[in-house]
Amino acid sequence: MRSATELAALLRNRQVSAREVVDAHLDRIERLNPAINAIVTLDPDGARAAADAADAAVAAGEKVGPLHGLPVAHKDTHATGGMRTTWGSPLHVDTVPASDELVVSRLKAAGAIRLGKTNVPEFAAGSHTVNPVFGTTHNPYRRGLSAGGSSGGAAAALAAGLVPVAEGGDMGGSLRNPAAFCNVVGLRPTPGRVPTWPSAMGWSPMQVQGPMGRTVADVALQLSVLAGPDSRVPIALQDDGAGFAASLPVELPGLRVAWAPNLGGRIPVDPVITAVLTSTVQVVQDLGAKVEEDCPDLSDADEVFRTLRAWIFEASLGDVVRRSPDKVKATIRWNAELGAALTGGDVARAEIAHTRLYERVIAFFDRFDVLLAPTTQVLPFPVDCEYPTEVAGVPQRDYLGWMRSCTLISPTGCPALSVPGGFSPDGLPVGLQIIGPPGADRRVLEVGHAIEQATGHGQHRPVLPFPEAA
Predict the structure, then answer these.
(1) Among this protein's residues, is 108 annotated catalytic?
(2) Residue 151 and residue 168 in contact, taking contact as beta carbons nearer than 8 Å
(3) Quick one: 4-296+365-469 is in which CATH superfamily?
(4) Which one from 3, 89, 146, 174 is the annotated catalytic residue?
(5) Catalytic annotation present for 174
(6) How far apart are CA 433 and CA 417, in angstroms?
(7) Where would I find the beta strands (DSSP E) of 349-423?
(8) pLDDT tens-digit readout, 222-278
(9) Closest CA to 451 of 434, 469, 470, 468
(10) What is residue 49's three-state secondary structure?
(11) Is the predicted pLDDT of residue 118 greater than 90, yes or no?
(12) End-to-end Cα, the chain, rounded Å
């Protein structure tokens, strides 16, 4: 299973054709996807036609993009022109957008070839990929366990080798959580690094889009084409993205690293995860970094995240919930109803706390270059469970509780990368979260690449097909 960067080089040098690469992935999808259910919409004829056009362009000596010929499947919450986008909801089962949204069009402009769409939870709510339109996505490392979410279809497709590149979105961990569950790499970029358009709440830094891949270099390659300014997006960063594709280091001399195994005592974590990641953190020290246990003051991060999330749910889904309550899952109704009950004072207090949280985090990164923490608090759980109600013996009050290893980081404005951190004794993936100061996306990629190369955890791919599906 070659990485995207390896395939891109072979395609550029005409050692393989785009048609060969697309056909190989379509064959793998046909054989493996029925048991995993990662890709839910497929356009083989369109993909083959695009591949033939890509090969013709190379033969004619035309300039091609960095992702030339690489198959991609887009998250089913990202609008794709001429291909249905359902958001995992019965309300949109027949919705076919007229045009691509920005993250899709940038991948296409870079030469990626659209195969189809990846599965999501209903309206991308919750970190377990199941919906009433397409059903459940299974973890490629063990059928019957969750692939995480909301970009669970993307993570599972990558882990199973159904596509070499994929993208997703992240408000409370939707790029990081499934990456950890499926032993791939997912980056929540600094807000504005990857502009989101169209967006009804363009000033909000909470919901971001970003790349996923099997390696950190693959994620960096995608970021090089996804990042960059867009005048329609008010928080878009002005830096050109091309530099993200530069080579990445394999050592970390002098790096100042904080290790927060439970985010300063704020979250319970499965002891198995802590044990696995403690060994990985030792590898970071062996690479030349100075590691000490510390954590920024994340006071009020819960209040900020929950208030602003509820506000966004009311703004984006409140009318849907009121109009069709029977066609929206209970957790979405609950979250939108919380938003509807907010007052102006509630939102103002959350924004004040948000500002103070950001200031404290900035001060913390005066002393440290990166923060390491668990990506998830639990191992992949059974697919018939909507969400874990207990973590390490601690009851969780709602469907957001078990995700706090990610949700507490989201409102900080920091880039956060999940990389393979090891495996539990019975072979389930564990993710390590690498968090940098706002704007330091390149730094977290560098650290993630060095860890990836030293540990080799990401090279351990799942054994497929599943024994019961063979």
Answers:
(1) no
(2) yes
(3) Amidase signature (AS) domain (3.90.1300.10)
(4) 174
(5) yes
(6) 6
(7) 370-374, 390-391, 394-395, 416-423
(8) 999 999 999 999 999 999 999 999 999 999 999 999 999 999 999 999 999 999 999
(9) 434
(10) helix
(11) yes
(12) 19
Query: What does DSSP say about strands 142-146 and 138-139: parallel, antiparallel, or unpaired?
Result: antiparallel
Q: Which two tokens stand for residue 226?
A: 């996804």
Residues 6+ positions from 13 with CB-CB distance below 8 Å: none
Residue 75 appears among annotated catalytic residues: yes
Q: Could you give the C-alpha distances from 121 to 58, 93, 182, 365, 375, in angstroms and in order? A: 39, 14, 16, 34, 19
Residue of 75, 108, 117, 329 marked active site:
75
pLDDT band per the 50, 70, 90 thresholds, residue 468: low
Summarised one tens digit per residue, pLDDT across range 311-330 is: 999 999 999 999 999 999 99
For residue 33, name the pLDDT band (cuts at 50, 70, 90): very high
Residue 89 to residue 215: CA distance in whole angstroms: 31
- Predicted confidence at residue 1, as pLDDT, reads 87
Average pLDDT of the chain is: 97
- Residue type present at position 59: A
Tell which residue, 157, 207, 152, 219, has the closest CA to residue 180. Answer: 152
Look up residue 114 and give its two tokens.
Answer: 């659209």
> Which of 150, 204, 405, 418 is the catalytic position?
150
Looking at residue 467, its pLDDT comes to 83
Length of the chain counted residue by residue: 470
